[in-house]
Design brief:
Shape of chain B: globular
Number of strands of chain A: 6
Order of helices and strands of chain A: HHEEHEEEE
CATH architecture of chain B: Roll
Strand content of chain B: 35-45%
CATH class of chain A: Alpha Beta
Structural class of chain A: alpha+beta
Radius of gyration of chain B: 15 Å
CATH superfamily of chain B: Hotdog Thioesterase
Number of domains of chain A: 1
Number of helices of chain B: 3
Largest sheet of chain B: 6 strands, antiparallel
CATH class of chain B: Alpha Beta
Helix content of chain B: 10-25%
Distance between the termini of chain A: 29 Å
CATH topology of chain A: Thiol Ester Dehydrase, Chain A
CATH topology of chain B: Thiol Ester Dehydrase, Chain A
Strand order of the largest sheet of chain B: 1-2-6-7-8-5
CATH architecture of chain A: Roll
Structural class of chain B: alpha+beta
Strand order of the largest sheet of chain A: 1-2-4-5-6-3
Oligomer: heterodimer
Number of strands of chain B: 8
Helix content of chain A: 25-40%
Amino acid sequence: MSPKSRRPEPVQVVKQRRDAALNALVHGVPYVRFLGIGFDRRGDELTAVLPFDEKLIGNPMLPALHGGVTAAFLEVAAIIELSWSLIWPNMENGSQDGAAFDPDSLPSLPKTIDFTVDYLRSGLPRDAYARARVNRSGRRYASVHVEAWQDNRTRLFAQATGHFLMPDQTS
Amino acid sequence: MVEASNKVIQSFIEKMPHAEALGLKILQLSAGEAEMLMPWSEDLIGDPATGVIHGGAVSTLMDTCSGAAVICHPENGGVTATLDLRIDYMRPASPGQDVRAHAECYNITRSIAFVRATAFDDDASRPVATATGAFTIAFRKEASA
């Protein structure tokens, strides 16, 4: 097995495979569409993006994003990051073809056990961003931390930690 | 039942743009207590394989219901904001069913309100989720006798 025996894949093939898998993961979920959440990808790093919309407002007098929207945005970012970390190895070692990812062939989504949101400042009527970090990913349980910000990366407006029940990975 | 003095609060909460987008309805509002309903909608599905609604939608219902309980507490003199909210998911909500939440503001200080909430679907004997939260208090009124 000489390392030179395999040429690197063309970059477009790699990107197409990863984007197709991410697309299948995100766009299959009606609630993610309802909130309008999208994901930016740089290699394996995901950033969840919540474009501002009037229907996301809670208190119209401030106005501020609804606290529930903030919680939901963080939870979506956590679940997608965790699922993404589960499909990434199979996608990259070639045991599953990225183009073949569709909502039916994806592994089951992790289930939330608990989710704790820390509201640091009110959500402004602007776009919001979130990045999740899987701190522990076991066979049965995972712990994920998420940070969300708006104009300034270092001024978080909310953060959260959640525990998740992992999907059955025996198949 | 919503007492006449709480009708303004009911209208304020139900008319929040995101509460309207979800169709949230207040079923009951009294001193430091609230009950709300989130009607079933396919838009709320979080797991397309099972049709179970997303935890985030349940969080929004719990957060709104908890906030409503704080706002109508007799010692709270204004609006509120969530400081911290923890949700525990007991079981998936049954697809096709409305979700109801009941919240109780069980302690209030000069600056913080502490709230517990529970969510159910049609099977009221087994909670779908429970929540505990801390909410801000704008200013405290002396409780009227």
